[in-house]
Write a structure and sequence with these properties.
Layout lengths: L7 E6 L3 H16 L3 E2 L8 E6 L4 H13 L9 E5 H7 L2 H5 L3 E5 L7 H9 L5 E3 L21 E5 L1 E2 L10 H4 L4 E2 L2 H13 L4 E5 L15 H9 L6 E5 L8 H9 L6 E3 L7 H6 L6 H12 L6 E8 L6 H14 L3 E6 L17 H23 L6 E10 L4 E6 L4 E5 L12 E9 L4 E6 L1
Helix pairs in contact: 8-9, 12-13
The chain binds 5'-deoxyadenosine and iron/sulfur cluster.
The site of iron/sulfur cluster has 10 residues, from helix 6.
Length: 443
């Protein structure tokens, strides 16, 4: 007798790497409940969005998607909203999009199996929402990683910093770290499965506190990087306040720890940093940069910047521009300030027009492009190892990534040998661009 047809789900993810990795865990959890993932909404019984609310634009995306596919409700399809917008907006989502039957924040994902049963039983509105008091981590044995070569490991969830502009402490709750034993067990398990690159994840990885008291963050980094079979370890994101010299020392002494640090500065002006409640000033930030610059290995540094925070004057903005010159970043992510619910900055007067924020963003990005154009030239003539990520058939080039997180497009001698996707190759850089390098494989 044929069994019941398998239930299907479609999942789209918005936002940061934490969300991407949460989705891998959600997918694994749903599969363990007998669901099958499909790649179109049309084929799915259950349509899920894992959402981001870091800026207003990101938040609006999910409501556009929900409106676009509302008509599919008539076919009996169910909709669920997961992640940061779910946690932030809660049951208000049911009012705005009445065809949604499930709203679930990240701290409640372990309840997903129960929630699915309720939806299948015909319950109209199912919620999984947690306040900041939660101690729950979403550890699951069912993580369905999408890439077989490099993968994420969560080491800390939530954030206790409460920067004035940031919604994360409200959507992801208070900081809770996993034990170093559990992190190391997952790293060993990944190595056994053939993974060679691990990225340790957290909103603030360097606030990590081993609940068992065995390892500091720098010691955990080194221990993961010394796992047999693991060739590369990355970590993101770091907060300057908790960025200790021991992290730089670990990078110096453990070659499998990648020589790249993402250290969000947000502003180059001490006055604005204070208003942002960032807990460091320009000088303290530059001190951390100096530690990295004096390291025995060259460390590539990238950052995040917000322009147009309430009260940012032209002089403050100029300080951010001069900081870019002073540090010499290899990459930046820059954003216009976006007021967010619940955050302290929401109540600050925000007289800077959107047009002016756009202007500052464009000036900043233009300056950074010049810096990268200049800085990337230093790689010409160098040979580095890359992890091979794919092939661009159209251009006849392979794409790889260096330990410093630089993208290298490269060609191979006619007749090969050809690199394997997920493997490693040595590439000599021949040409540099602001955002990538071009080279040839060295045999
Ligand atoms: N507006 C603009 N950018 C923001 N970020 C966080 N909150 C906001 C906001 N309200 C940026 C910060 C952070 C990155 C992930 O997103 O630069 O580092
Ligand atoms: Fe947001 Fe600040 Fe926490 Fe980062 S450290 S997640 S910017 S509150």
């Amino acid at each position: 007798m044929p069994g019941e047809p398998q239930r299907t789900f479609y999942l789209e993810t918005f936002g940061c790497q934490m969300n991407v990795h949460d989705s891998e865990k959600v997918i694994g959890t749903l599969m363990s409940q007998g669901y099958r993932q499909v790649s179109t909404v049309e084929d799915a019984d259950l349509i899920l969005y894992n959402t981001c609310s870091i800026r207003d634009k990101a938040e609006q995306k999910v409501f556009h998607r929900l409106a676009d596919y509302k008509k599919l409700q008539a076919q009996g399809k169910k909709f669920g909203v997961l992640g940061c917008v779910a946690q932030q907006e809660g049951e208000k989502i049911f009012e705005r999009a009445p065809h949604v039957s499930m709203v679930c924040g990240s701290a409640s994902y372990r309840n997903l199996p129960k929630m699915l049963v309720q939806i299948e039983a015909g319950k109209q509105r199912v919620t999984g929402l947690d306040d900041r008091k939660t101690d729950e981590c979403f550890e699951t044995e069912f993580t369905a990683r999408t890439n077989p070569h490099r993968g994420y490991i969560t080491i800390i969830e939530g954030c206790d910093k409460f920067c004035a502009y940031c919604v994360v402490p409200f959507t992801r709750g208070k900081e809770r770290s996993r034990t170093s034993d559990s992190v190391l067990a997952e790293a060993r398990q990944m190595a056994d499965l053939g993974y060679t690159e691990v990225q340790l994840l957290g909103q603030n990885v360097n606030s990590y506190k081993d609940p068992a008291g065995k390892k500091s963050f720098a010691e955990l980094l080194a221990a993961v990087a010394e796992t047999p079979g693991i060739k590369r370890v990355r970590f993101t994101t770091s907060h300057p306040r908790d960025f200790g010299r021991d992290i730089v020392e670990a990078i110096e002494s453990v070659p499998t720890l990648c020589d790249h640090v993402h250290l969000p500065v947000q502003s180059g002006s001490t006055r604005v940093l204070h208003a942002m409640q960032r807990l460091y000033n320009r000088e303290q930030y530059l001190e951390r940069i100096a530690w990295m610059k004096s390291a025995k290995r060259e460390i590539s540094i990238t950052t995040d910047v917000i322009v147009g925070f309430p009260g940012e004057t032209e002089a403050d903005f100029e300080e951010t521009l001069s900081l870019l010159d002073e540090v010499g970043y290899d990459g930046i992510f820059a954003f216009k300030y976006s007021p967010r619910p619940n955050t302290p900055a929401l109540h600050l007067a925000d007289p800077i027009s959107d047009q002016e924020k756009s202007r500052r963003l464009a000036v900043l990005q233009d300056k950074q492009k010049q810096i990268q154009m200049h800085r990337n030239q230093r790689h010409v003539g160098q040979t580095v190892e890359v992890m091979v990520e794919g092939k661009n058939e159209l251009r006849g080039q392979w794409v790889g990534r260096s330990s410093q997180n630089k993208v290298l497009n490269f060609t191979v001698q006619p007749g090969g040998p050809y690199p394997a996707i997920g493997g490693y190759a040595r590439v000599r850089t021949t040409t540099s661009f602001p955002n990538s390098l071009l080279g040839e494989m060295v045999v």
